[in-house]
Amino acid sequence: MKKIGFLSFGHWTPSPQSQARSAADVLLQSIDLAVAAEELGADGAYFRVHHFARQLASPFPLLAAVGAKTSRIEIGTAVIDMRYENPLYMIEDAGAADLIAGGRLQLGISRGSPEQVIDGWRYFGYQPGEGQTDADMGRRHAEIFLDMLRGQGFAQPNPRPMFPNPPGLLRLEPLSEGLRERIWWGAGSNATAVWAAKLGMNLQSSTLKSDETGEAFHIQQAAQIRAYRAAWKEAGHTREPRVSVSRSIFALVDDRDRAYFGNGQEEDQIGFIDERTRAIFGRGYAAEPDRLLEQLKTDEAIAEADTLLLTEPNQLGVAYNAHVIETILTQIAPALGWR
Length: 339
Description:
36% of the residues lie in helices and 18% in strands. By secondary structure, the chain is an alpha/beta fold.
């Protein structure tokens, strides 16, 4: 059995071919798709976070709105770039959104992905410490965030406060109990997956990772997941960790599906996410249901994961994406034992 959700990049463009032509379109349609996905029986609504781009960027207002409009579905990110974040202010935002949602947030965080601008985090007022990289800074912000989520007091109270204080040092409010166990790390390499396990974070692995062995993407990703689980066990954590993978999966069941995805790319791709890092990009899946089932059976990483996030082409509109989700839930997932 697997949890199955969707992952939206939240693109918009003024093109007349797009159903999402403005930021308002994307935000409102994201809420509508989450509502529709919950009604269809999906388990999660997840959103990407990208700065300086015509895409979703500020996650917490959206997460809170989705939380207020739904009652069951998990609500998450994949991922928040921690190089841009004030981890203390993020505690307050995350706590408020999680309380509105009744404890359904599943926050994916990471050191970040390739950017639209050069060193965009500098415009947000952050820079690495001496001898550190921006990746080091992102991981340090994540560590502070995780530490603050424990809810321990750390701030000296004013002896003449405006309002009465509880005894002792003060913590950030509102704090949502249990959110610490619902933080995920988006790992692009085996080493960062192991690091996430040691810190007690769940694992998000997408359709891109460092090409560490030259093997097929799904084989490398499955090895990453196994390394993560071994590190989790070695760290002695008492709860069971969660692992998600994301995939572009389209069952071609009508003329719309065939027109949009009938000639989809079916091979992994190799590229460079920066000057030094060779990356492998996982293939998408688009085929008639019988053929699609046979293809998905061979994906080792999907088999290893407990959660599958379906990347959705949000510019095709809410109705079409609901159709894509429904087809996977009703025709593909049961046949593969995911439901």
